[in-house]
Amino acid sequence: MLVVLTVGFSLPSNLVSKNLPLELSCNFPCALLSSETGWSIETLRLFSCTFRPTEAFGCLRRLTHVFLHSILVNDEELGHLLSNCFALEELEILSCNEIFHLEIPSTLSKLSVLRVLGCKVLQAIEINAPKLSTFHYGGAPVQNCFGNFMICYARTELPSIAPNVVSLTLSSHTETVNTPMLPGKFLNLKYLDILLSGKMIFSPSYDFFSLISFISGSPALESFVLRLKQDVLRHDSIVGESDGDPEDIKKVDCPHNHLKTVTITGFCSSKSLVELTIHILENTCSLKCLTLDTTRDNEISFPMIDRCLTMSKEALTEAHRSLKAIRRYIVGKVPSNVCLKVLEPCKRCQPDSFFPTCQSDLTTKIIPHVQITITIANITSKKNMI
């Protein structure tokens, strides 16, 4: 049953609500949740209101799902709510801008899903929920713990904090530190999705090859997605580097026995990224499909009106160089049992016919830019301290 609650409207005491969305622009009456009505609620959704629970807040013994969107609630007040939700299984906090330190207590023994998105003043997250299996954090890096090395931090700390994580999504817009090779492992990690954007990854000093630390540290990994958001010419391009001496390619002997699919969007001609791709091909006997997308923001496509998001001239030039790098260094290393998919910019991506659709000797493997949907179950992440 769907019940919409407004200030001054009370629910019958015998109502058992299965889903309670609340769209309020003023103070939410916390006393409602401390009544018999509150005891029966299983799902609570609060939107755009002030929420001030106190120490006297009652026990919500049936509450399993909480969604807080654009709510004015501070650290202490949120703590009063969470300390009384012993059955809570899913918690989503979106754009709640009075929370500085989010603490998930160990009393939330059934909590399995946590999403924290767009909380502008958030400085730290501490998670003590023993059964948490999915964690998704979106927003600016938490300065006290991440600084400018979210990916590096995740590789360094998460294996000990969240050893049972199965799906992990990481996003960094200010990465300045390469990922170190470490002994710690994600023994159960199967799905890894990494997004890198921002000006720092444009620097030749950033080593994409260092990301093999994640792959080598995840012996059960089956799917790896790397998304690069950049719109510039690479200054560390392997193209034009004396035609790129193949003997100069960095190599590490490290087999990956379960990796089946690899997708790199925003593929560029950076030498370290080419080296990472070659490493995967040469060390993954289980690989079935490798997708290299040389376009930028390929998901923003409008096929019904024959339009794509126009790429800049710099991005188009870099895509052209990326195709050359793929032909020269990667195609010859693809085993016969591996499906290679290469996506290039189409005419819809190009302003004023910047250059014709790339003519290539890989016509059977390179396909024009189309909208791509990559679906992998439960691509989310789990962390214990951000």
UniProtKB/TrEMBL annotation:
InterPro entries: At1g61320/At1g61330-like, LRR_At1g61320_AtMIF1, LRR_dom_sf. This is At1g61320/AtMIF1 LRR domain-containing protein. Residues 23-346 form the At1g61320/AtMIF1 LRR domain. It comes from Digitaria exilis. It comes from the Eukaryota. The lineage of its organism: Eukaryota, Viridiplantae, Streptophyta, Embryophyta, Tracheophyta.
